[in-house]
Amino acid sequence: MRGILKLFAKSPFGLMVKHAAQVEETVKLLRPLIEAFLAGDTARVQELSEEIDDTEHEADKIKNAVRARLPKSVLLPVNRGDIMGYVKEQDGIADAVEDVGVILAMRSPACLPEFEPNLLKLVDQVIHAAALLFDAARAIETLQSASFAGPEVKKVQKMVAKIHEAEGEADRLQAEFSKLVFANESRIDAISVFQWMRIAEVLGDVADHAENTGDILKLMLASS
Asked: What is the DSSP string of the chain?
């Protein structure tokens, strides 16, 4: 009996939830980062960029700990590859937030007043998409205790569907913001145009990774 218990003792699911919580901490810093940039507070932008970097580094540590808990000797109700794919995509959310911080701390792009409303809408939408993923992630331990079956499964599947909707809206806002930048490219320098395109792309990556993570979670539910 003791040997059987050891097979389940090192389950990675608790760490998957912990990883989600750590990634969420990076996302919480995204809007303050953008607000500091819009306010012209370069010192605060640098400070937040460094804080995001530290927070993302802690998420990496947890990601590596999940990997360490996936030996073949541990019995799992879902595919090991799906678990690693899940954590990798979830970690991509933190990486994307970190990239935004690096871009803004390296060189502030020229910003027109009319950019602000659209930029903040995009930021809030990608944060919303990520938040929906984190809500679903918090259910993982409950799913594990129920052997990935029962009413909790349908609840999480509905959450994943909402992530898809949120990511679609983020795509629309990303395109809208990009069009606005190009419509005003004659008023700002070429490097700033490039930076804005990159920022819009990386912000979109936050929602993309949230959607991909949700899809892998859905796959785990279907295959368990």
From this structure: -HHHHHHHHT-SHHHHHHHHHHHHHHHHTHHHHHHHHHTT-HHHHHHHHHHHHHHHHHHHHHHHHHHHT--TTS--SS-HHHHHHHHHHHHHHHHHHHHHHHHHHH-PPP--TTHHHHHHHHHHHHHHHHHHHHHHHTTHHHHHHTTT-SHHHHHHHHHHHHHHHHHHHHHHHHHHHHHHHHHTGGGS-HHHHHHHHHHHHHHHHHHHHHHHHHHHHHHHHHH-
Token pair for residue 100?
């935004």
With a cut of 80, say whether residue 72 has pLDDT above it: no
Distance CA 94, CA 23 (A): 5
Cβ proximity of 170 and 30 under 8 Å = no
Q: Indicate if the alpha-carbon torsion angle 35, 36, 40, 42 is positive or negative.
A: negative
Structure tokens at 172: 């629309």
This prediction's pTM: 0.91
What pLDDT digit, counting tens, does each position of 188-216 carry? 999 999 999 999 999 999 999 999 999 99
> How far apart are the C-alpha atoms of 113 and 111, rounded to whole Å?
7
